[in-house]
Amino acid sequence: MPGKSLRVRRLSELRDDLEPPVGEAPEAASPSLDTARLEEDLQGMRQLLTRGLWDSVLANVMPRGESKHPARAASGAKLLQQDVATAATLNAASDTVAQLSEVKDRKPCAARVLRYMGFGSLDGFAGHHWFEALDMLPKHDSVIDTAQKVLADSLVYTPCWCACFLFVMAVLEGRAAEAISEVRKDFWELLTGNYGLTLPFVALIYGCSPVRYQVACFALLTLAYTIAALLKVRFDRRIDSWLDSLCEFYQTLALVDPWTPRRSARLAVLKVMTAVAFPGAAVDCSVQKLFFDSMPDPVEILSVDQVIQPRLLKRFLARMAEEPASVEVTFHGTRPEFVKQILNDGLDPHLCVTGNYGFGAYVATHAGVAHQYAYPGEDGSRHMCVTLAAVGARLVKGKEREAPSTTAADRLINPTQYCFTHEDQLYVSHLITYRATDIQFCRTGGGFQDPFHTKLRAALRASEKDEKNENKRRVEIF
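RESULT FIELD:
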């Protein structure tokens, strides 16, 4: 150091001036100059100089928080305590917000909040020392420094943080034996999530925030991310609610008999208005009416359950948006063991390996036709799905053991069965559970009369008559 060297040189010159040359007798001490006192001052200055040099060396060698001065050490310990407390508090707040979004109308679990608070304490402790270590790296351009810190954070700290989070949370939850498997299962998903949306904010924190506030900034980032996720969840719930309402409107609009002439469109509007006030009663009544149109009266309906699957409804509406088509209410009879899969995933055309009209998912225009495929369960109950079907602009006559390129039918005029090759053309809207036992066959002449067959033939004759009237009305219009 130039300043300290200059001070040493001046002290040496002063000492040479005070000491007489070799071979010369010392002069008598001036009465105004105290030699002993001057020597004491020189010794004190040497000690101060030596202490200053050592302090400078220690300041460059010893890490932060371990300064020789008690005041500096106390300041570093205070910052560490503040970072630990801040991270613990904000982590607890983040989990509280997350629980409010996950569980509606229920108080947050205190034990879970405490677990996140405990991990937040560890995160604050580790983050404090990590940010201090990054700050001690050689300084370059500010952009380069920020890029180096973000790169080091992404390659070192973030992977370690993800692994520690999964491991520590499993241990705190009492699943220490599953901690390693938990890390292996969820590590990559958690890591890629951290690399996604939050990466620009990480660069912003490293580039703009002082070191002493970086732990708090990252904890606030976690809280902000959780709040944003909460808003998204609420928005998704609102979208699902809108889809539920749209589903009811769409189903009610479609609950006009497929064989009913267009002049009955006012009936559809009336059904929509009724569904707004009494959605369940209006739709159930319409479903039962369509069901008994081709089923004998002794059949007992046990329940009519509305099926709400937003994912499948979105798929169906997207198909309708791409290719507008008329929607018909159809029926699909099935076995009891297939009901759950159909309600969850819809009708899958790829599961059909046999069929008189091609490979695909089959639906019937009348419940009496679908009843032939609704096998009874152990308790005698049967299941039939009410299915909205977007037939499309083209219709072909199906052929056995062939995959039709478009919607196929058993006949082109007034069909009774459709075969669909695309799953997004079908949406299961209701599940009818009914019982058809103790129905006596009527003896007529030399044989027996099947009540199901009689009712179905009557419905088919009515639909053929309505179809002819509709075609005649169209000719008169054009």
